[in-house]
Amino acid sequence: MEGEASWDAYPLSHFRVEGIGFQTVSEGNIACNVGTFSLDNILPDDILERILSFLPVVSIFRASSVCKRWYDIINSRRFLWAVKLPRKPWYFMFTCNDAADGYAYDPVLRKWYNLELPCIEQKSNWLISSSCGLVCAMDNDSRSRFFVCNPITRDWKRLLEPPGVQFPDYSALAISVDKQSHDYTVAMTKSKQVPGDYMQWELSIHLYKSENQLWVTSIKEVLMGWRGGDESMICNGFLYCLIHSTGILGNADLRHGLIVYDLTARLSHTSVMQTLIPAPCPLSCGRLMNLRDKVVMVGGIAKYERLDIIKGIGIWELNKKDWREIARMPHKFFQGFGELDDVFASSGSDDLIYIQSYGSTNLLLFDMNQKQWKWSTRCPVTKRFPLQLFSGFCFEPRLEVAS
Fold first, then answer.
1. Taking 50 as the threshold, does the pLDDT of residue 14 lie above it?
2. Do the domain assignments include residue 177?
3. Dihedral angle at the C-alpha atoms of 52, 56, 62, 68, nearest 10 degrees?
4. Which of 79, 87, 212, 312 has the fewest CB atoms lying closer than 10 Å?
């Protein structure tokens, strides 16, 4: 590990134009002489636009620093809509340090890029969800600051603070982007213990629509023996929230469950507990994701006699109200994480799932189509101190969506 780069060893000032900056950390910088003539005098705009559109996304924004003409073309609305980027999701890994930056992994080129999210501040605890190129972030300390941004173009917007109880005990965040209109919906689920009664937890769901830029409280009810958590996602117009048993109902095996809420319903007089779907097995933790409009969960499989110890990791797909097991992590990959706590980070999009231990930068990929497991290339970061933690999320690299 000696001699490797630290987390912030690669300055963001390199290749920066109007706030957009990338730098590859998987290969050296290559100097390029374009000759003694200017392409401005040879190529019309449409041909130059076509040529630039074939560049990798990182090279596109490097090219925008060549001259004003290239910058104007690359940042034009027509160009951003025309560029067809690979839809394989990237994985953004970050840690709490002196800079609000991290590294994004491109699974197609198998490279890591230094990337800074424009709205996330340093040394803060953030809850993050992504959909179709947009990332929604919530300050998990104050639970009052919300941002939506495109990590590639660095376009961002701060949302209004949602209504409901202040400082909930648990919060879950989900975003869904319409692929045609690019309008988006943000769902914020709050859970707070009823004062003086550990058996009862107040659950509320608040929705933000980008069309009207307003929050609406959709549901509010009290759960008995269950509480909300920090995991939710949106799929096909339904909000899925992972809830946790408080252990007072006498069923030790049923630690997690899934509740479903129809986002198109203005008001519902039916309890969300009537939609409860039990977890496929005793889990140490569960991570929800939307993969090609399918509800998928990655879960830590707990030991039956010691539910706080993880013995493996499984992947399940929801079919109506039944879970179908897709895969289990082979033991050699499970061991490859080293010490793996009972909780871990996992997110996915398209057909790709990422799994990461909070205690290291090792990143494992699972291809849902090919049913293959493989490690990413080594992240260019070393762990500075024993208790340093890392986290991450995946997002689609898109240019045409904006907040």
1. no
2. yes
3. 20
4. 212
